[in-house]
Specification:
The protein is α/β, with parallel strands linked by helices and about 375 residues long. The chain has 2 domains: about 300 residues, LarA, N-terminal domain (Rossmann fold, 3-Layer(aba) Sandwich), CATH 3.40.50; about 50 residues, Alpha-Beta Plaits (2-Layer Sandwich). It is built from 13 helices and 16 strands. The strands form 5 sheets. It has an 8-stranded mixed sheet, with helices on both faces. Strand 5 and strand 6 form a beta hairpin. Helix 8 packs antiparallel against helix 11 and helix 11 crosses helix 13. It starts with a strand and ends with a strand. The structure holds iron/sulfur cluster (2 copies). One iron/sulfur cluster (SF4) binds next to helix 10.
Amino acid sequence: MSEVFFASAEAPVTELEKWYQPEQSLVYKLERPIDESGILDGISSGDIVAIKTHFGDFGTTKTLRSVFLRKIAEKVKERGGKPFVTETTGLGMTKDRSFAVGRLLIAEENGYTQQTVSAPIVIADGLIGLDGVEVRLNGKHLKEVYVAKAIAESDFVVVATHFKLHFRAGVGGSLKNVGVGCVTKTTKYDIHVANPPRIDKEKCNECGKCLEVCPSDAIANYEIVLEKCVRCAGCGEVCEAKAVVIEPWLLGEEIAERIVEAAKAVIETVGKDNFAYLNFVLDVTPHCDCHPYSGVPVIPDIGIFASKDIVSVDKASFDAYVREKNVERSLLKEKFWEWTSPERLISYAEELGLGESKYTLNKLF
Ligand code: SF4
Ligand code: SF4
């Protein structure tokens, strides 16, 4: 049974004259789950340490606050590590979020800079999101995974996750932050879509826009050459005639299983012992941070969960979320989007040996 450490978001200050208590800050409280869980003990002096988070998009307002990343970076440095804060690009070839340059501008607008997080910021999958290390695997769904290069080359990864709901995966916890967040566009495509793209010749008006956007010259005679296609989905974004067929977009158990298979490849590349997980169950929004807005959180804030076990940390966060009653104005009356299967993330990850769903919870505050 794995251990999960917990710091509550509550600040039980009720006496007027005792209002000034810095130790009630959740940033201050974050120190104990990190120190007492030993999740960073695997960092050796000189190690390059990725702190993987999500910067959101322009307009996203409830991503993880930069002060938490700053605290994590300080803790990494205390152990002699060299931290950098990192994120990957989004699927597609037209939006700011799909390129490193745009991602960095989004990061700056949302409050993540080298100055605020006390560590350099690196986009892990390169300028256009195709820098990856190919990992072969024999998954039920995925046979190859492209791990974002800067993640693959790190000595240690701290997965710092804003835990929230997700339209397709059900929840965005550590499993999703690793499985989707630490891979290139090609694997993001393979997680989300069952078939490679193709062009419907009857709808194509030969405008040429897809040829201009394609990063791998994979379109010849208005047909996609699959051997060259890197599955960036850019052609689908620019085709106004809707001649590019990208389908089916996956939901439910299948997308959950694909996320877990990709997470397994990432974890095996860096090494299972070289990961630490921190789930921030705060501002649990009904949509993920990819959306250019953040609505009303579904539940009140719960706190921070820390573990060396990716399955346990997600299960503990999941259980705490399910126990909490939805706020009255929640967009959701149920706990999850009905077409999602978040439980499958947990059960499949356990089946693949990524961790244990049984855990002991050490409540520190
Ligand atoms: S963008 Fe669409 S319509 Fe234009 S050439 Fe490509 S597939 Fe055809
Ligand atoms: S053909 Fe493939 S590589 Fe080219 S734009 Fe479309 S998805 Fe991307």
